[in-house]
Amino acid sequence: MEGDDRREKGHLSDRRFDSLGSVLDPRLLSSIPFEFMSVVQAATLEHSLSGVDVLAQAKTGTGKTLAFLLPCVQRISTMLPLVSRSPSDISVLILSPTRELALQIEKEAVVLLRGFQGAIGVQHCVGGTNMETEKRALRSSRADILVATPGRLIDHLQNSGLAPQLRNVRALVLDEADRMLDMGFRRELQTILAALPSRQERPRQSLLFSATIPQGIRDVADLDENHVFVNTLRPEEQNTHQHVPQDFIIVPHTQTFAATLCILLESLSQDPKTTKPILFFSTARSTAIFFVLLETLQKQLSGVHSANLQRLSPAWQALQTVPVFELHSRKSQSQRVRATQAFTKSQTAILCSSDVTARGVDFPGVTSVIQVGLPSSGEQYIHRLGRTARAGAAGSGVLILTPYERFFLRKKEVAGLPLRERKLVFTEDDLLPEADSAIRKALMTVSDKEKSQAYQAALGYYKSSLKDLGWSPAQLVDEMNDWARQALLFQEGASGPAPPLLAKTVGKMGLKGTPGLNVVKQLPSWADDGAGDSPNDRGDVYQHLSTVRQRGSPYGRGAKVVANGRGGGAGRGARDSVVRATQSSS
DNA sequence: AAAAAAG
């Protein structure tokens, strides 16, 4: 605790919020839930409160949200009692790259607005929710501050007649600004900017916040030429990620899930009461599969007779009860909201996530970030890592790669990081053979449909990295087919040697004519969208597995494990198992 | 089709 306090002070400044007593509206000042400003806040507030444009670079988890909300709320408060304004006018527009981040920002704004007792309102508009409900709320209640994701905002502009409410916008905030300005969002941002009044006719302030500020951001951003650039990174520390202990592990792709499970079991055995890792996957489909695997393992464990459960190692016991959540774009928005809330308030839990939560989202107390498979970019690796070790707390990172993904370590954003290779050392009683066996059994309960979807997603994902991988399209298909069969245990059945793909889909992927693909005119009924998610009855398998071995894991040691030149032997029980790790610099 | 983001 003492150490935490010291680190906590590291991101706090010595300036108190009440030093702004002459500048800030007292109702705003009294709603600030902190005594001291963070470093970013202290460095940006004097500028942003003066009204100039600000481009700020700061570590994640250091109070950026409050840094841009304060000047926005203050600005609106000076416009009170709002006689000249229509109650439906939007004064501040905040854009976020994900729905979860938008909702989180709105929540912080609600806190800051308490003192105004409804005179200033904040609302959100994000996808995946009822369009009509939002439309009505935007009409009938104050939305002085609107927090939005781009797609849904444009939808409202074009279909709900929201445009007139934006004619008085006085401030525009881009959170995760680099993401908002990159190729994926730039067009949408242009559409939104076009709906705002020109800055000549209606002066406004732009506030851009991000942990990484790439070259050229100023060329595309909506920034005044007299803007202030604030960099709160100390040169010697650069970014959090320089200080967070980070390991990488290279395993064959058949062992990726087992290695991931090992890392989880290891952290559960060290600290079952406080462990709170996030597991990041590259596609929504593989996120879903690993989540199902964990759920299945838990159900299998709960079928183990309690007397036998006592004999298992503490890690397996802990796995049975730790809450597990999944969060990605293939879930409904209400499920996403529920998972976000539940993981936020859990002291110990496991979150399986896609890159939805890679940026900005603030889950308290995340103890480690485990990245499974190739991250989509060096920057994305850093943003994901930033979900732990926030606001001065401790945290660590693990990256699990296959040999063909090793090139990632040479990317320029990653090459300078303190990433150290860690080998899972195979000893007689280590966890990997058990984990492998458990994963294989659990995979039997995953439907061919789910496996096919993961296969298709992986093809699409790796296709964008062919150059880095040094693969031809045919090699890509070979590797992914092997992955489907050997790692996902996709059964080559009546449908052919690989999961089936529609000719149409293959065409869109640009893989027409590539050997090795199982191209079909029509998907078999089990893989069709209309079919249920799980034709296999998981319940049967639980029953089947409910007999436990005398000692060790409930999953036996059936699978032969070969990695780094050593096979896993039949050893003693899991009670004494540990993942042995050796550190060696890479 | 591949994170995400509109349905």
From TrEMBL:
<dbReference type="GO" id="GO:0003723">
    <property type="term" value="F:RNA binding"/>
</dbReference>
<dbReference type="Pfam" id="PF00270">
    <property type="entry name" value="DEAD"/>
</dbReference>
<dbReference type="InterPro" id="IPR000629">
    <property type="entry name" value="RNA-helicase_DEAD-box_CS"/>
</dbReference>
<comment type="function">
    <text>RNA helicase.</text>
</comment>
<keyword id="KW-0694">RNA-binding</keyword>
<feature type="domain" description="Helicase ATP-binding">
    <location>
        <begin position="45"/>
        <end position="231"/>
    </location>
</feature>
<comment type="similarity">
    <text>Belongs to the DEAD box helicase family.</text>
</comment>
<dbReference type="GO" id="GO:0016787">
    <property type="term" value="F:hydrolase activity"/>
</dbReference>
<feature type="domain" description="Helicase C-terminal">
    <location>
        <begin position="260"/>
        <end position="432"/>
    </location>
</feature>
<keyword id="KW-0067">ATP-binding</keyword>
<dbReference type="GO" id="GO:0003724">
    <property type="term" value="F:RNA helicase activity"/>
</dbReference>
<keyword id="KW-0347">Helicase</keyword>
<dbReference type="InterPro" id="IPR011545">
    <property type="entry name" value="DEAD/DEAH_box_helicase_dom"/>
</dbReference>
<dbReference type="Pfam" id="PF00271">
    <property type="entry name" value="Helicase_C"/>
</dbReference>
<dbReference type="InterPro" id="IPR027417">
    <property type="entry name" value="P-loop_NTPase"/>
</dbReference>
<protein>
    <recommendedName>
        <fullName>ATP-dependent RNA helicase</fullName>
        <ecNumber>3.6.4.13</ecNumber>
    </recommendedName>
</protein>
<keyword id="KW-0547">Nucleotide-binding</keyword>
<dbReference type="InterPro" id="IPR014001">
    <property type="entry name" value="Helicase_ATP-bd"/>
</dbReference>
<dbReference type="InterPro" id="IPR001650">
    <property type="entry name" value="Helicase_C-like"/>
</dbReference>
<dbReference type="GO" id="GO:0005524">
    <property type="term" value="F:ATP binding"/>
</dbReference>
<keyword id="KW-0378">Hydrolase</keyword>
<feature type="region of interest" description="Disordered">
    <location>
        <begin position="550"/>
        <end position="586"/>
    </location>
</feature>
